[in-house]
Amino acid sequence: MTISPLQKERLLYAPKLPGMLRNGIAEISVKEGQETQSVADQEKIKALFPNTYGKNEITFEKGTNTSEAKKQVVGVILSGGQAPGGHNVISGLYDALKATNPDNVLYGFKGGPSGLLEDDYVEFTDEFIDAYRNTGGFDIIGSGRTKLETEAQFAVAAEVAKKHGITAIVIIGGDDSNTNAAVLAEYFAAHGTGVQVIGCPKTIDGDLKNEDIECSFGFDTATKTYSELIGNIERDANSAKKYWHFIKVMGRSASHVALECALETQPNICLISEEVAEKKMSLSSIADYIADSVADRAADGNNFGVAIIPEGVVEFVPEFSVLIAEINELLAGAKADEFNALPTWKDKYAFIEKGLTKESMAVFAILPETIQQQLFLERDPHGNVQVSLIESEKLFSALVKAKLEERKKAGTYNGKFSPLHHFFGYEGRCAFPSNFDADYCYSLGYNAFMLIQYGYNGYLSKISNLSKPAEEWVAGGMPITKMMNMERRHGEDKPVIRKALVELDGKPFKFFEAHRAEWAKETCYLFPGAIQYYGAPSVCDLTTRTLALEKGE
Ligand code: FBP
């Protein structure tokens, strides 16, 4: 197979481990810390996880390895959206497993959690793993979004594990997948299977973090990739001086990706969904906020700019959520057929006008027609509006355009406004992992095996002190139940890992807030450039501004 020169070079990169894991397997000892409690709803979580609740946090140290010598057969699963570094979690896991005992076996279940249920797997070999070291993507075994959450599925998983003599399963996933990892761990313990479950924190969205997990893997590389592109666009905008670029970035609901990209590139505008919700901003007030920047810059002769829009923002606009709920209701059951049978958009519009409340109709009426149609035409199998498909970058540019036309008529604005639109998401999910993600992921995988070897179950592989050089990172594990609380999901109270949204009193947002007025008016762009893999560590090993600010650096 032909591979690119960079891939060839990256296959040879030796990821950096935390200092305490560097001396070889024989010299990794374990230190048990405090007993843990869940972050909230302790009694309820304890009752739901009688076998795995309240366990101790643990840290690895340099010292004599006292783990039991037993053959390990481990299965690994990639779950959910791709994130740069997944291949390194698997290679770290494989290296630790083989270094402990060459007879140990690592299976990869294909296509996500469904691979475990369907017993569809590969057995890893040196040659297989070596072809994927330090590469992006999840193509080594594929990923999927099947949820492992029912008793029936757990029973199948137990059967498959028994058939292959599996001693542990590693689930590489986000908050939902790791919540399910904890439930599976409890099931295995309660049924005396002897199979351990270890989770690894993955998602480019950056919303799996808490006091134990400093960041999920993939966030660093994905945001660096988007920031490179945004910086390039900023430079183009500042060269041509004729376009306003509206750039939507991924990150399903939380705005960590948008915020990090803003900190990296200093655009004129960046919306933060959590702030939109907190201040109960309307579509019109958001459009006015952006139009103010367009007009202020136009007054200085700068008819160009860059605005970052987080993927999930419309769901955080209160009036928009109400509109979506009303549309879902309007098309529930047979009413959808009635709507679909109407011959023209005019007829459909009349149907909508009759069905929505006055307030929601007012919101609907200001949307551009393409977005109005998107809300009705592209719905999920349950008939609900697919909010994630709404082209919010186009929505906001159209609303801003309308505002500017009004201002022109009123004689308060006299600039030119030519918007262009971009969506950066998939571009970043499979990039070659940055050195940070390559090192972090390899360490997560290596560490996951040490947790298995020392007999832990229902733990998340934890590497901390991440803003420091890898030598100073701290390797250990945290019971997943510690991160859980009860939340209402689909009409039921469920134990879940809390999703981390952007904290409006957190240091990254505060920094952004302190500078955004200047960025909105002036041209303060930063050009981060492409991810650097070779060269000075001050450039190559640098992690995110979010993490640095959170750590007070
Ligand atoms: P995970 O939370 O599973 O890591 O996925 C996150 C994400 O990349 C979001 O940013 C995005 O909204 C979504 O996946 C896209 O999903 P899909 O790959 O199914 O199109």
Describe the model.
The protein is α/β, with parallel strands linked by helices. The model has no long low-confidence stretch (mean pLDDT 95). It folds into two domains: 29-218 and 433-489, 3-Layer(aba) Sandwich (Rossmann fold), CATH 3.40.50.450; 219-429 and 506-550, Rossmann fold (3-Layer(aba) Sandwich). It has helices at 5-11, 42-48, 86-100, 113-117, 126-130, 151-164, 175-190, 219-240, 256-265, 273-278, 283-299, 313-316, 318-330, 335-341, 345-355, 358-365, 369-377, 392-409, 426-429, 435-453, 507-521, 537-540, 545-550; strands spanning 28-35, 56-62, 73-78, 105-109, 121-123, 168-173, 196-201, 244-249, 269-270, 305-310, 419-424, 459-464, 474-479, 484-489, 492-497. The strands form three sheets. It has a nine-stranded mixed sheet with strand order 1-2-13-12-7-6-3-4-5, sandwiched between helices. Strands 9-10-8-11 form a four-stranded parallel sheet, sandwiched between helices. The two termini are 44 Å apart. The longest helix is centred in the middle third of the chain and has 22 residues, at 219-240. The chain is globular. Bound molecules: 1,6-di-O-phosphono-beta-D-fructofuranose. 1,6-di-O-phosphono-beta-D-fructofuranose binds at residues 80-81, 83, 174, 203-205, 250-252, 311, 388, 429.
Give the C-alpha Rg: 25 Å
CATH fold-level assignment of the largest domain:
Rossmann fold
* Form type: globular
CATH architecture level-2 label of the largest domain: 3-Layer(aba) Sandwich
Structural class: alpha/beta
Would you tell me the overall average pLDDT? Answer: 95
User: Could you name the CATH class of the largest domain?
Assistant: Alpha Beta
Bound molecules: 1,6-di-O-phosphono-beta-D-fructofuranose
Tally of DSSP helical segments = 23
Low-confidence stretches: none
Task: Work out the strand percent.
Answer: 15-25%
In the sheet with the most strands, the strands line up as 1-2-13-12-7-6-3-4-5
The CATH superfamily title of the largest domain: Phosphofructokinase domain
Distance between the termini: 44 Å
Indicate how many domains the architecture comprises.
2
Helical amount: 40-55%
Count all strands and give the number: 15
